[in-house]
Design brief:
Structural class: mainly beta
Pfam families: CfaA_B_C (PF11912)
Keywords: Signal
Oligomer: single chain
Strand content: 35-45%
Number of helices: 2
Helix content: 10-25%
Order of helices and strands: HEEEEEEEEHEEEEEE
Mean pLDDT: 85
Protein name: Transmembrane protein
Shape: globular
Number of strands: 14
Bound molecules: 2-acetamido-2-deoxy-beta-D-glucopyranose
Strand order of the largest sheet: 6-7-1-2-9-8-14-13
């Protein structure tokens, strides 16, 4: 499984380097140190957002070798753009790395929060995926240190008293590993563990 994932990761890199970029998802890797100019450290979060779709007022577009992120004034993306940022495909900028890819993946030993168009068919209707590593102390700038873990049918977030270490007694919150449809939106939200 590990080898397969490594091959998948290589395939993604290979595709983005050597083929014309026309991915269906924009992948963003967030590295542990915001000032890490090389993006060689630990990835603390990975997101995949489907291209050219309004996602709560934000839209991602792959445009040649560039990725545009448009922030709209309203959640339906109908009231004009407030701000737009452009990132080069595959280039590390400020501890962030953007890539256009053909599909999303949930890394091994991670959990994911998946926004999809339905619960029954979340795998093929996923529009936005956020994943973070499990069972490791995550130091996130300007937040308290956390460890995520999956046991039985819950995802536990243990938030530590300190911002830069996982010492002391954490506060724990849990969410069920299940899919929920929200009555006031057309999207569903699932929590998934891959461990
Ligand atoms: C954004 O929306 C607010 C409230 O509707 C409005 O006052 C403002 O002018 C809008 N800004 C832009 C850039 O459209
Ligand atoms: C949270 O969970 C950890 C690990 O199971 C435990 O050591 C800790 O006491 C819990 N925190 C609280 C406030 O119960
Ligand atoms: C949900 O979808 C329906 C049909 O496409 C649409 O009329 C409605 O405005 C949508 N609701 C929200 C909250 O986006």
């Amino acid at each position: 499984m590990k080898l397969l994932l490594q091959i998948l990761v290589l395939a993604v890199i290979f595709t983005t380097l050597y083929n014309e970029v026309n991915g269906q998802y924009v992948m963003v890797n967030y590295y542990n140190s915001q000032n890490d100019p090389t993006c060689k450290g630990e990835i603390i979060t990975t997101t995949f957002n489907i291209e050219n779709k309004c996602l709560s007022g934000v839209e991602f577009t792959c445009n040649g070798n560039e990725i545009q992120v448009s922030f709209y004034n309203d959640s339906y993306c109908s009231q004009g753009i407030l701000q737009q940022i452009t990132q080069e495909n595959g280039v590390c900028q400020g501890g962030l790395q953007f890539n256009c890819v053909d599909n999303y993946q949930i890394p091994e030993n991670s959990f994911a929060s998946v926004i999809s168009e339905s619960c029954d068919d979340w795998k093929s209707t996923a529009v936005s995926i956020l994943s973070k590593p499990l069972n490791t102390c995550l130091i996130i700038p300007s937040e308290n240190a956390v460890i995520y873990s999956c046991t039985g049918d819950v995802l536990t977030t243990s938030t530590y008293p300190s911002a830069n270490s996982c010492f002391g007694i954490p506060k724990n919150t849990t969410v069920p590993l299940a899919c929920k449809s929200s009555p006031d939106s057309n999207y569903s939200n699932s929590y998934i563990c891959n461990q």
